[in-house]
Amino acid sequence: MTKIAPSILSADFAKLGEEIKDVETAGADYIHVDVMDGHFVPNITIGPLIVDSIRPITELPLDVHLMIENPENYISAFAKAGANIITVHQESTVHLHRAVQMIKNEGVKAGVVINPATPAELIQPILADVDLILLMTVNPGFGGQEFIESVVPKIRQIAHWRQEQGLSFEIEVDGGVNKDTAKRCVDAGADVLVAGSAIFNQQDRKKAIETILYHT
Ligand code: DX5
Ligand code: ZN
Q: Which of 11, 56, 78, 103 has the CB geometry, 3.0–4.6 Å to 19, for a possible disulfide?
């Protein structure tokens, strides 16, 4: 069963609590939280304070996607704020295993993310240590960008290695996911679809989620 993780980046931040409740009722599996620092990506968004304040709003796992430099310095703060999954970019740290271990030591599920131009081979050595691999299908920084088609073979490659090695991490995709692109991701092996604009830009979030899943 494919999971759906609405990205609150495209929500109305003036009523963030209601927006989260709305997608929870609409059938979301995770709430995807995009953390940006204005250095690793050219945008600034959410800190641990916001994660802490949305934590009591929902029972769903908070899937916290760190797009920040020096992620090791903030893992503990996001874990204590209530993150259930924390993903770090391979490109953001030279000590990836250490970052993953720090996440696990907090009792949180650990994920690793790669940008569209980063080869899958660079995360091959960490596959056995993670709960989730997130493949960016846009360059991170903004919602509403166009899906980068060349990532699809990379989804297939990661899914192949997972099967070959008997591993069970989830494969998540993020960026430009909508009713036209979701199927190609799921067919290639994606288990979790992050979608921001395709859900929050629609009035009826239940219908928006169903439309994406119906086309997979
Ligand atoms: C991009 C973020 C995504 C973004 C997806 O940097 O990581 O989670 O919100 O937005 P859409 O679905 O609109 O491409
Ligand atoms: Zn994201």
A: 11
In contact, 134 and 164? CB cutoff 8 Å: no
Residue 63 in tokens: 């899937």
CA distance 87 to 164: 23
Find out whether the beta carbon of 138 lies less than 6 Å from any atom of ligand 1.
Answer: yes
ipTM > 0.90, yes or no: yes
User: For ligand 1, is residue 32 a contact (CB within 6 Å)?
Assistant: yes
Residue 208 domain boundaries: 3-214
Report the CATH number at residue 103.
Answer: 3.20.20.70
Total tally of structural domains belonging to the chain: 1
Looking at ligand 1, which residue's alpha carbon is closest to its atom 9?
143
The model's pTM is 0.98
The response to whether 169 counts as a known ligand-binding position is no
